[in-house]
Amino acid sequence: MLEVSINDSERLVKVAHALSTHTRVNIIKLLLNKPNLNILEIAEKLDIPVSTAANNVKVLEEAELIVTELQPATRGAMKVCSRNFDDVRLILNPSAYDPNTSKVIEMEMPIGHFNNFDIVPTCGMANTSGMVFQEDDPVNFYLPDSRTAELIWFRKGWIEYRFPKKLPAGAQIYTLEFSLELCSEAPNYNNDWPSEITVWVNEVEVGSWISPGDFGDHRGKLNPSWWYDNSTQHGLLKSWSIDLTKSMIDKEKCSDHSLHDLRLGEKPYITLRIGIKPDAKHQGGINLFGRGFGDYAQGIIMRMEYN
Q1: Are 195 and 288 in contact (CB under 8 A)?
Q2: Helices within the chain (DSSP H only)
Q3: I need a surface site. Which of 49, 121, 140, 176 has the fewest CB within 10 A?
Q4: Is the peptide bond before 52 cis (omega within 30 degrees of 0)?
Q5: Which burial class, exposed, middle or buried, applies to 7 when counting CB atoms under 10 A from its CB (0-12, 13-18, 19+)?
Q6: Would you list the DSSP string of 118-164?
Q7: CA dist 39 to 36, 65, 81, Å?
C-alpha cells in the first residue's frame, strides 16, 4: 500500500494528479487484470492514440503508481508496464493518524546490515562517497565499512539479513512482505541479461523472479554524482510476500508455502536470504540497491500485517 501524507505535499500532488483522469485510472484497472502490458497494448485496449497512452504512462510512472521496464522487441525495445501498489492511502490530517492503531508494522533494513553471506565474484560495494573496498574479493564483505553500503553486487551465491520480530503481545501475523530494489549483474550493464533471483524466508524458498537485465537505460534518480555512467544505474522494485495460504511475487502466486511453513514462533527474528541457486537456469547475478542508489529511496522493507 502507498501512503502519502499532506506533509509531503509534492508527492501528494503527484499522486492526486496521476489519479485525476479517467484515462489513467483505466490504465491502472487494465494492469490489475493483466499485470504486464506494453504501451501499444494499452493504447489498443483503451482505443486511444499510442502517444496519449505513452504520456499518461509517464505521469503514472512519475507518481510511482506503476513501474516500467524495457524489454527486447522485434525492433529495438518496448516499455512494459505493471502496477506498483494495490492501494493508495492519502493522509490529510497526520495528527489524527496514529500508526500504532493500525495493525501493520514496517521495518527498513539498510542493505549493508547483512548478517551472513556466501558469494562469488564479481562482487563489490559502493556507498554515496565512493567504492567501499576493492572489487572482487569476498573477504572484504567482513569489513566494518560494509555497513555503509548503498549498492551491493555479486555474480553467484547469497546474502542474508535478520529482521527483529517485534510485535505486540499475542499478535498473530497474517501477511509478511519484503520489498526491495534489485536487478541482474552484468559487466558494466546490459539491459538484456536475465538472472533468476530467489528469496528464502526462514530458510524456506518463497519464490524466484527472473530479472530481465542489469539496467543502464537511464541514470538512477538517487545515484551520487561520482557514480559511473557506463555502470548499473537502477533496478526494479519487487516484493515477496507470504500469507496463510500461499507465497507471492508482486501479489501473484508463486508457491504454496504459507506462514505456517516459516515456523515464525521458534526464533525472535525473521531471516531473509537473497541469492542465485547453483542450479538456476539464468545465473546472471544480483545488484541490490539501498537508499543512496537506484530509483527508490529505501533499503529492504519488511511489512508485517497482524491481528
Answers
A1: no
A2: 9-18, 22-33, 39-46, 50-62, 259-262
A3: 49
A4: no
A5: exposed
A6: EEEEEEEEE-SSSBSS-TT-GGGGGSGGGGG-SEEEEEEEEEEEEEE
A7: 10, 16, 7
